[in-house]
# Entry
Amino acid sequence: MSETSWAAVDEYISGHLLKPDSALASALRHNAAQGLPPIDVSATQGKMLMLLAQMAGAKHILEIGTLGGYSTIWLARALPDDGQLVSLEIDPDHAKVARENLDRAGLSPKVQIVTGAALDSLRNMQQPAPFDFIFIDADKQNNVNYVEQAIRLACLGATIIVDNVVREGGVLDASSDDDRIIGTRKLFEHIANHPRLDATAIQTVGDKGWDGFLLARLR
Ligand code: SAH
Ligand code: DHB
Ligand code: MG
# Structure
């Protein structure tokens, strides 16, 4: 099996289980036109995030790493009428594109995009209502810090998902000098003996190549 087959199977899955969606399609078009890198979650992953958030009954979602808001749209759609999502993004140009995409999707009333380094935003955050669902998908170097901040701001039973924890098997390279790999390996070591997290990680292949996500529950 090659990357071509993975993408073809993703097309087969999307063709059967995902409906054509103008808000999501125009978000990806707008991202590309504005020069954003195509590193959003795939469509099948986006729908999985939405379903997981719905299954968890999420009402207060935290996202770290907005880009153009593609994953944000999927996650915000999981929310009930009185639900809220906060998404953190360091790049003002990305945040601007994301706000435009969320506006077009009719989701702006439910979504707050906070511009700035996510760790600063998190440390300054005084959440009146704790987060019940957290999606971490920004600079991988900070993943341990993000998980610890997420725990500080989350309720018991909260779902924590971390994207891109496999990186074409790069996670196995103990001598890597890639900060993203080093950050990911630190994340696994940190969670391995964590007193408050039950976790697993799932490898994925598809139209975004070979990667994976970590799924944890706060206890
Ligand atoms: N979740 C998005 C993809 C996010 S890509 C989706 O699936 O659609 C990662 C994003 O994290 C980029 O937009 C990048 O600018 C942002 N980022 C990188 N470092 C950051 C930091 N320190 N704080 C906040 N955002 C950061
Ligand atoms: C990268 C970041 C992501 O969040 C992603 O899904 C894929 C790639 C990156 O920084 O290369
Ligand atoms: Mg990602």
Notes: Strands lie at 60-64, 84-89, 111-115, 131-136, 154-163, 197-206, 209-218.
